[in-house]
Write a structure and sequence with these properties.
With 135 residues, the chain is an alpha/beta fold. The protein has a 3-stranded parallel sheet, covered by helices on one side. It contains 6 helices and 5 strands; from the N terminus they run αβαβαβαβαβα. Strand 4, helix 5 and strand 5 form a beta-alpha-beta unit.
Amino acid sequence: MQVVRSLGGTAITTAGSPSKRALLRGLGGQHVSGSRDLAYVQDLAAAHPGGAHIVLNTLTSPGMVSSAAALLRAGGRFVEIGKRDVSSTLRMAQERPDVNYGFVALDFIPPAVLGALLGQVSSRLAAGNRMASDP
């Protein structure tokens, strides 16, 4: 959320438990919904009628992936960061041919690449580009 906000975006988030939703709100989440049922789709679609630019997904229950993908605007990007029951590229292309679909697994990123990415974040912070939730 902090990276999204530091880049001028709005983080739209879901969490399963009330305590996790409270944590997201405490971190500055403006649009926080539950993720245990599909009610979040209506909440988030109403908050952002133009659709999301990016969805970072970990949801796997029936209907969740399709519902999360439905929140994207045309040309948006769906990034799967979950580890189980991952949707296939073919399935996503059939459901939403107008969006990009990809996977990210931090534990499979080579250490040198991950180190370089973390170095970039550190450099930004050292240059005074603080995260949006900092006071």
